[in-house]
Design goal:
heterodimer; A: alpha/beta; Aconitase, domain 4; 2 domains; 4-stranded antiparallel β-sheet; 4-stranded parallel β-sheet; B: alpha/beta; Aconitase, domain 3; 5-stranded parallel β-sheet; 16 helices; 32% helix; globular
Chain lengths: 213, 461
C-alpha cells in the first residue's frame, strides 16, 4: 500500500532520452544485495562516473535538480526489465511524477503501485511541457493536482491536462491496497476453482512427480 | 463469434469482469524466482497474509546463482527464497536440485507451463513459454505479492497483433535472427499495449525450442505476452513432462489443446507479415535490440531507422562509426546462455561449429546451460566435451551474464558477443559492449576472435 497521491509540488527536471530502460534506472549491481541502497542506485551510471564521482553534466546532478520530484521523459521510458526496483529507486530518490508520451507497460504499472504518477499530457502538449521544464530550469516549482488531472506552474499561465484511467486514479488517490480490493472477489475465485476442477481438472492440480529425463 | 487463440485462453480464465474495465484473470501456474520472491514474501508476512494456492506455485533459484563450478552456490536471495518457500509450503527447484535452472527454461522442461494455461512470473521474459501456447504475464514485485495472495491478476485485455513469418529460413539463420530482424523492422516499442501471436509457415515448421527463443524476445519490442498455437510438435514435447497430465487426463487435455487455434476469420488489431527468404544472420550494433543489422550490412548513419541522438549515444558507447562493417571487429568475450538461447538445441548448434576448432587466443568464452537438465543432457550427448575441448568454459546453470545479478559481468571496454536478449549499455558490466546474436554467430566469433558471418565457417565444414 503506497502513500496516497493528492497534490504534489516540486522541481521538474528534463530527462528527454528515448528508450531509457530499467537497467539504466537501476543497474543490477544494486539488486545484488537484498536491501541495497536504491536511492544511490537510481540512474547510478548516468549520475556518477566510473570512479564514483558526480557527473556534473547529467541533469539530476545539477544543483537545481538534485531535489527534483517530477521528471519530463522521452518515449518508451522504463522499457526492458520488469524489475520493480526501478520504481522503488525513483521513489527513494524523491521522484513522485513522471510525464512522458509512452511509458513502457511494466514500468508504468510498477509506478502506480508505488504511488508514483506516470502519465502523458498528450503528444502535442508534451513538446510545450518539456520546453517549459527546460526553460524554468529548476528555478520554480511545478504543481501536480491528481484530482483535477492538471500540472501547472503556480503564478504563470502554464497548465497542462493529463488523462488517467479512473481505477488507477483511485489507486493513487487513496493509496489503495489492491489485495484488499481483490479479496472482495474471494467467492467468485472459489467458484471458478470449483468449476474448473470439474471441467479441466489438470488446471487445478500441479504435481511435479511425473516422468523424468 | 470468431476468436483468436488468446481470446480462447483468456475467456475461460475470466473469474469476473470488474466495472473498471479490468478482468480478474485466474493464474493457473505461478513461478517465482529468488531475485523478487523474497521481497513479496516479506510483504505478505508484514500483513499476516498467506499464499492462496501454494500447490500451484513453484519457486526457482536462477538470477543470483553462482555459475563457476565448485563454488558455493548461495546468496542472501537464495536463502530468503528457501525460507519463504518452506514457510508457505511452495515447491522449490533449489540450487542443488538436478532440475535447477533459469525459470523460463525450467517451466517448460518440468511441464509447469502447458498449452492453454495462464502463467505468471515476476520477470519480463515470462512470454517465453508462450511457445507452448501458454498465456504468460510478467509482473513486478507488488503484483507478485497480489498473485501469491489471490491467484488472480486484474488485467485490461490487451490489443492483439499477429506476426506472420512467411517463406523459408535459409541456412545459418536461427529463431534469434528472426526475432532481431522483427524488432528492427517494427521498432523497439511497437508491441506496447498488445499481446502477440506468432504464426505462419515458418513458425509451424519451427521446433519447440526455437519457438521458445522467438517468444522470449517479445518484451524487447514492448509486448508483454506472446503465444504460438500448440500443435503435434507441442503435444509430443509436453508428453511425459513431470507436471503434464497422464492417462485419460492427458487425452482430454490434448483434445482441448487441439481447439486452441485462432479461428480463420478472427480479426487482429494489427498484423505484420515478415518474409524470411532473405533474412541473413543478424547482429546488434547499438544499445537496444532494434539497433540491428544483417551481418553483410554496415552500421547505419545516425537517424536511419532510429533517432539521431539515440544513435549517436549508442555509437559512442559501442565504439563504432557509421558506415563501418561489424565483420572483423575483435571480440574479448563470448557468452552462450540465458533464457533466450541456452537449451539443448542451442548447445547442439554451438558444438557443431566448435567441433575440431579452438577458441581464439585472448577470448574468454563461456557456456552457461539454461538448466541443470540441459547441462546433464549436453554432457551425456558429448556436446560439453566438444565445447570444453575447444576452449569454452563449461558452467553451472543460471542467468549469469545476461543480467549480471550474480556478479558475472565483463570489464569496461570489452566487446562481448552474447546470445542474450538485451544489449543495453552497462547491462553485462559497466562499459561492456554487447552485441546480440544467435548461438552459431556467437561461437563463430569465439573461434575466430572477431565478428564473422557464421555461414563462412559452415561452408568450410
Amino acid at each position: 500500500m503506497a502513500e496516497p497521491f493528492t497534490i504534489l509540488t516540486g522541481v521538474a527536471a528534463p530527462l528527454m532520452l528515448d528508450d531509457l530502460n530499467t537497467d539504466q534506472i537501476i543497474p543490477s549491481e544494486y539488486l545484488r544485495r537484498l536491501h541495497g541502497n536504491l536511492a544511490d542506485g537510481f540512474l547510478a551510471y548516468m549520475r556518477r562516473r566510473p570512479d564514483g564521482s558526480s557527473n556534473p553534466d547529467f541533469v539530476l546532478e545539477k544543483p537545481q535538480f538534485r531535489s527534483a520530484a517530477i521528471l519530463a521523459v522521452g518515449e518508451n521510458f522504463g522499457c526492458g526489465s520488469s524489475r520493480e526496483h526501478a520504481a522503488w529507486a525513483m521513489a527513494a530518490f524523491g521522484i513522485r511524477c513522471v510525464i512522458g508520451n509512452s511509458h513502457a507497460e511494466y514500468f508504468r504499472e510498477n509506478c502506480i503501485k508505488n504511488g508514483i504518477l506516470a502519465v502523458s499530457v498528450g503528444r502535442e502538449n508534451m513538446n510545450s511541457f518539456a520546453r517549459v521544464v527546460a526553460e524554468i530550469d529548476g528555478s520554480s516549482a511545478f504543481t501536480v493536482d491528481l484530482e483535477a488531472q492538471t500540472i501547472f506552474v503556480p503564478g504563470t499561465a502554464h497548465l497542462w491536462q493529463f488523462d488517467i484511467d479512473a481505477y488507477e486514479k483511485t489507486v493513487l488517490f487513496e493509496g489503495l491496497d489492491e489485495i484488499g480490493q481483490t479479496a472482495k472477489y474471494r467467492g467468485q475465485i472459489a467458484q471458478w476453482e470449483a468449476r474448473t476442477a470439474q471441467t479441466r481438472p489438470f488446471l487445478q492440480t500441479l504435481r511435479l512427480d511425473g516422468g523424468r529425463d | 463469434m470468431s476468436k483468436t487463440l488468446l481470446d480462447k485462453i483468456w475467456d475461460i480464465h475470466v473469474v469476473d469482469r470488474r466495472g473498471d474495465g479490468r478482468d480478474l484473470l485466474y493464474i493457473d501456474r505461478h513461478v517465482v524466482h529468488e531475485l523478487h520472491g523474497p521481497h513479496a514474501f516479506q510483504k505478505l508476512d508484514e500483513k499476516g497474509r498467506t499464499v492462496s494456492r501454494p500447490d500451484l506455485t513453484v519457486g526457482v533459484q536462477d538470477h543470483t546463482v553462482i555459475t563457476v563450478p565448485g563454488k558455493k552456490r548461495t546468496s542472501a536471495h537464495i536463502e530468503a527464497m528457501r525460507a519463504g518457500a518452506r514457510k508457505h509450503g511452495i515447491a522449490l527447484v533449489d540450487v542443488d536440485d538436478p532440475e535447477q535452472g533459469i525459470v523460463h527454461v525450467v517451466s517448460p522442461e518440468l511441464g509447469i507451463a502447458l498449452p492453454g494455461l495462464t502463467l505468471a512470473c515476476p520477470d519480463s521474459h515470462a512470454s517465453t513459454v508462450g511457445a507452448l501456447g501458454t498465456l504468460a504475464f510478467g509482473c513486478g514485485t507488488t503484483e507478485l505479492e497480489h498473485i501469491l495472495a489471490t491467484q488472480v491478476m486484474a488485467l485490461q485485455k490487451p490489443k492483439q497483433m499477429r506476426i506472420v513469418f512467411e517463406g523459408t529460413m535459409t541456412q545459418g539463420v536461427e529463431a534469434k535472427d528472426l526475432a532481431l530482424h522483427l524488432i528492427r523492422t517494427v521498432g523497439v516499442d511497437a508491441g506496447r499495449g498488445y499481446a502477440v501471436e506468432y504464426a505462419g509457415p515458418v513458425v509451424e515448421r519451427m521446433e519447440i525450442e526455437a519457438r521458445l527463443t522467438l517468444c522470449n524476445m517479445t518484451i524487447e519490442w514492448g509486448a508483454r505476452s506472446s503465444v504460438i498455437a500448440p500443435d503435434e510438435k507441442t503435444f509430443a514435447w509436453c508428453a511425459g513432462r513431470r507436471g503434464a497430465p497422464v492417462g485419460d487426463a492427458w487425452e482430454q487435455a490434448v483434445a482441448w489443446w487441439k481447439t486452441l487455434v485462432t479461428d480463420a476469420d478472427a480479426v487482429f488489431d494489427k498484423e505484420v507479415r515478415i518474409s524470411c527468404d532473405n533474412i541473413e544472420p543478424q547482429i546488434t550494433w547499438g544499445t537496444d535490440p532494434e539497433q540491428v543489422v544483417s551481418i553483410s550490412e554496415t552500421v547505419p548513419m545516425p537517424g536511419e531507422g532510429t533517432q539521431v541522438e539515440k544513435s549517436r549515444r549508442s555509437l559512442a558507447y559501442m565504439g563504432l562509426e557509421p558506415g563501418q562493417s561489424l565483420v572483423g571487429l575483435p571480440v574479448d568475450r563470448v557468452f552462450i546462455g540465458s533464457c533466450s538461447n541456452s537449451r539443448l538445441s542451442d548447445l547442439r548448434a554451438a558444438a557443431k561449429i566448435a567441433k575440431g576448432r579452438k577458441v581464439a587466443e585472448g577470448v574468454k568464452a563461456i557456456v552457461v546451460p539454461g538448466s541443470s537438465t540441459v547441462k546433464r543432457l549436453a554432457e551425456r550427448e558429448g556436446l560439453a566435451a566438444i565445447l570444453i575441448e575447444a576452449g569454452f568454459e563449461w558452467r553451472e546453470s543460471g542467468c549469469s551474464m545476461c543480467a549480471g545479478a550474480n556478479g558475472d559481468v565483463g570489464i569496461a571496454g570489452e566487446r562481448c558477443i552474447s546470445t542474450t536478449n538485451r544489449n543495453f549499455e552497462n547491462r553485462q558490466g559497466r562499459g561492456v559492449r554487447t552485441h546480440l546474436a544467435s548461438p552459431a554467430m556467437a561461437v563463430a566469433a569465439a573461434l575466430t576472435g572477431k565478428i564473422v558471418d557464421v555461414r563462412e565457417l559452415m561452408k568450410a565444414d
